[in-house]
Amino acid sequence: MTRCIALVVAAGRGTRLGGRLPKQYLPLGGVRLLRHTLSALRHHPRIEALRAVIHPDDRALYDEAAAGLELLPPVPGGAERQDSVRTGLESLAELAPDHVLIHDGARPFVDAGLIDRVLDALTARAGAIPALPVTDTVKRGAAGIIAETVDRAALWRAQTPQGFRFADILAAHRAAAGRQLSDDAAVAEQAGFAVALVPGSEDNFKVTTMDDLARAERHLASRLGDVRTGQGFDVHAFGPGDRVWLCGVAVPHNQGLVGHSDADVGLHALTDALLGAIGAGDIGMHFPPSDPRWRGAASDRFLRHAADLVAARRGIIAHVDVTLICERPKIGPHRAAMAARIAEILAIGRDRVSIKATTTEGLGFTGRGEGIAAQALATVRLPLPGG
C-alpha cells in the first residue's frame, strides 16, 4: 500500500478575520476549528500519519485542538506559508512517504471522497489538486473601471489538500525557497511537472472572514442533523484512602473509592453516556474489569476513547451533563475544576460541560455514606445517514 502522510499548514495569524485568536483556533461547533480539519484527515484510512505546522506561540491552543488524536508532533512554521510548507516537508524527509497531502488548517470540511480523488490521481501524475470551475463572469479592472472581460472557460478555483509525490514536491520547494508563489501547485509548476485537476467541493471552503465562520457554523449544523442522547450511571463504594477521583479531579477525603481502575464514578458514567449515544455498548465491553491492563488506570483514558469513537463517526459532542450523588465530600469547591478537566479531555468548550451535585437526604447507600453514585447525559451530533 502506498504510504501517504498529510501535512496541515496552520501557522498563519488569520488577521483578516480580526479578533484575539488566529482563525484556525476559533470555536466551531464547540471545538477549535482546526480540530475539525485534523480529525477529518486523520480518520481517513489512506492517510498513515499527520503533522501540523504551527506558529510557536500557538502551542497551547494546538495541544487543545489536537487532544486525543494520534498525530506526529507539530513543527514550527516560517514567516510565509511557503516557508511553513517547506519546513513541514523537511520534517517528513526521514519518514520518506510516497505521497504527501498539503492542506490548509482553515478548511474544516474536507471529505473522504475528495481526498480519494486527489490520491487516485497521483497514480498517473506527480501532483493533483481539487478545484472548482469559475462560474461567475470575470472582469479585470483598473482604477475602479472594467478594463476587460476575462474568458472564464479555462479558469479554476484551487482548493486543498494538494497531493504530490513526496520526493518531487520536496525538491521543488527547496528550489523555490525565497520565492513567494501562491500555492504548492504553483511550486510544482515552476519545477516543471504536471499537476492534475480533480473535482473539488463547494463544502471545502476556507474560513477567512467572519461571514465564512458563520457559514461554517450553518454548514456544520446542517451536516450533523442526527442528534443522539445517551445516559450513563455508575456506583463505587468507599474504601481505604485519602482522596477520591471525581470527574478527573483528585478530591481530598478521609476515604477512597474502590474499583478496578481509579474508580472515577463521574467519568465512568459519562463514558457510558457517550457510548450509549452512538450505540457502542458500555464501558465494560471496551475495558473489561477482568483485564489486568486497566487495574488502577486513569479513567480519562476511557472517556477519551469514547470521544474518539464519536470523532471516528465524524460526529461532535454537543453537551455533557454529570450529576454526582453523595453526602461527602462536598462537590461545590471542585465543580469548576471538574468541568474544566472534562472539557479538556473531550476537547470541547467549557460552556458545553455541566457538573451538578445532590444528596439523597440521608436515604440509601449514598445517604449512609457507603459510596458515591453518578448519572450522566451526553448529546452528540452525527452526520445524517448518507451524509
Structural notes for this entry:
With 387 residues, the protein is an alpha/beta fold. It folds into 2 domains: 4-223, Spore Coat Polysaccharide Biosynthesis Protein SpsA, Chain A (Alpha-Beta Complex), CATH 3.90.550.10; 226-382, 2-Layer Sandwich (60s Ribosomal Protein L30, Chain: A), CATH 3.30.1330. It has helices at residues 33-42, 59-65, 81-92, 112-121, 166-175, 184-191, 210-223, 265-277, 283-286, 300-312, 335-346, 364-367, and strands at 4-10, 27-28, 31-32, 49-54, 75-76, 99-104, 127-133, 138-142, 145-150, 156-158, 162-165, 195-199, 226-239, 243-246, 249-252, 256-257, 316-325, 353-358, 371-382. The strands form 5 sheets. Strands 1, 4, 5, 6, 7, 10, 11 and 12 form an 8-stranded mixed beta sheet that branches. Helix 3 (81-92) packs across helix 5, helix 5 crosses helix 6 (184-191) and helix 8 (265-277) runs parallel beside helix 10 (300-312). The longest helix is centred in the middle third of the chain and has 14 residues, at 210-223. It is elongated, with a radius of gyration of 25 Å. It starts with a strand and ends in a 5-residue tail after the last strand.
